[in-house]
Amino acid sequence: MAVTTKGWEDKGAVEKFTTRSQEPDFWSGVEPFIQKVLIPLYNTGKNERREFNRALDAGAGWGRHSFYLLRKISKEVVALEPSEEFVKRMREIDKKEYGGGSIEIIKGGLPKTSFKNGEFNLIVCWDVLAHGTMDKIKDSAEELKRLLAPGGVLVLGTLSTNHKNFKIARKKGKEIEKGTFVGGFEGEWGGTHHYFTREELEELFKGLRIVRLEEEIRETGYNKGGIHWAMYAEKPLKPKALS
Ligand SMILES: C[S@@+](CC[C@H](N)C(=O)[O-])C[C@H]1O[C@@H](n2cnc3c(N)ncnc32)[C@H](O)[C@@H]1O
User: Fold this and answer.
1) How far is the CA of 243 from the centre of ligand 1 (A)?
2) What is the pLDDT of residues 119-132, one digit of tens each?
3) Does the Cβ of 143 fall within 6 Å of ligand 1?
4) Domain residue ranges in the chain
5) pTM of the entire structure?
6) CA distances from 181 to 7, 132, 156 (A)
């Protein structure tokens, strides 16, 4: 079954998210994580700066991370997004505001991309992976690993089984496979949502070095009070020898 983007093509959804994303508290839902996780990764503390020259924002939505990365971190950013409406919105943003970097906005999605192996040294995949059934989630995780350069970093946010909506989904939604529901997610549009356990994420991202995997409560924004996993993981410089 294909990863669904049902709901994200909806004009109302696009309107709500792109307009609301201009509100300060909506934005601050994302920025503390970036400050806490990405900036320390970027500044190694020895007057050195880690280079994240080419970044992928996988499932970029309305571009809030893509443009943030372009402003603060990466010279080249690729925003990959399947929703026509969001792609259109991102293309309307005036890139002149974002310094000398380049941004490529591509309509497409996980798990199948045409990027080269190891093309990116930073990948952000934030609130995207949950929109699918496990077979596609597995393929998407494999694709993210393939696209990451040795030494590159993956920053991933996704729903936890401790999210308040997990209980609601169990009551009101339809469980189409273990942990995956259609409907029951308050404020969304009937798309598919998978709620992850720690073990599932560790299994999916085997082969990467998981530096941090923690549950966080979203403090502001549309998802206020929701518990999400926040993970960053590095691709080893050399693959582990098989024992
Ligand atoms: C909750 S939004 C998050 C957007 C963005 N990452 C952010 O945090 O602002 C989820 C996004 O994932 C996109 N999406 C859904 N399925 C996808 C897939 N298979 N590959 C890439 N993006 C996908 C949707 O179109 C939507 O824009």
Assistant:
1) 37
2) 999 999 988 999 88
3) no
4) 11-42+51-156+197-234
5) 0.87
6) 14, 9, 20
